[in-house]
Amino acid sequence: MSPSSSSIAAEPGAVPAPGEHHEHHPSYLVDGTTVKSWLLTLDHKRIGVMYLIWVLLFFLVGGIYALVVRFELLTPGPTIVDAMTYNRAFTMHGVVMIFLFMIPAIPGAFGNFMLPLMLGAKDVAFPRLNLLSLYLLLGGAAIAIWGMLNGGMDTGWTFYTPYSTHTTTTVAPILFGAFIIGFSSIATGLNFIVTTHTMRAPGITWFRMPLFVWAMYATACIQVLATPVLGLVLLLVVGEQLFQFGIFDPARGGDPVLFQHLFWFYSHPAVYIMVLPSFGVMSEIVATFSRKNIFGYRAVAFSSLGIAFVGFFAWGHHMFVSGQSTFNAGVFAVLTMLVGVFTAIKVFNWVGTVYKGAVDFKTPFAYFCGFLYFTVFGGMTGVAFATASLDVPWHDTYFVVAHFHFIMVGATIMAFMAALHYWFPKMFGKTYHEGWGLVSAALIILGFNATFIPQFLLGNAGMPRRYYEYPERFQTLNVASTMGATLLAMGFLITAIYLTYSLVYGEKSSANPWNSRGYEWLTESPPPTHNFVGPQPVYKDEPHFYVDPEKAEVPDAV
Amino acid sequence: MNELLNNILFLPEQASTFAERVDSLHIFVVTVTMLSSFAVGTAALYFFFRYRRRTAEQMTEYVVPSVKTEFLFVSLPLIFFLTWFVIGFRDFVFVTTPPKDAMDVYVMGKQWMWKFSYPEGPNGVNVLHVPANRPVRLLITSRDVIHSFFVPAFRIKMDAVPGRYTQTWFEATKPGTYQILCTEYCGLSHSKMLGEVVVLSPEEWDAWLKEQRRGDLANRQDALADLSLAPPPARMAEQGQKVAAEVGCFKCHTVNGEPHIGPTFLGMYGRQETLQDGNDIIADEAYITQSMMDPGAHLVSGYPNAMPTFQGKLTGPQTAAIVEYIKTLRTPDIRTTGASQGPVYEPIQQ
Ligand code: HEM
Ligand SMILES: [Cu+2]
Question: Most-buried pick from A272, A318, B165, B275 (CB within 10 A)?
Answer without folding.
Answer: A272
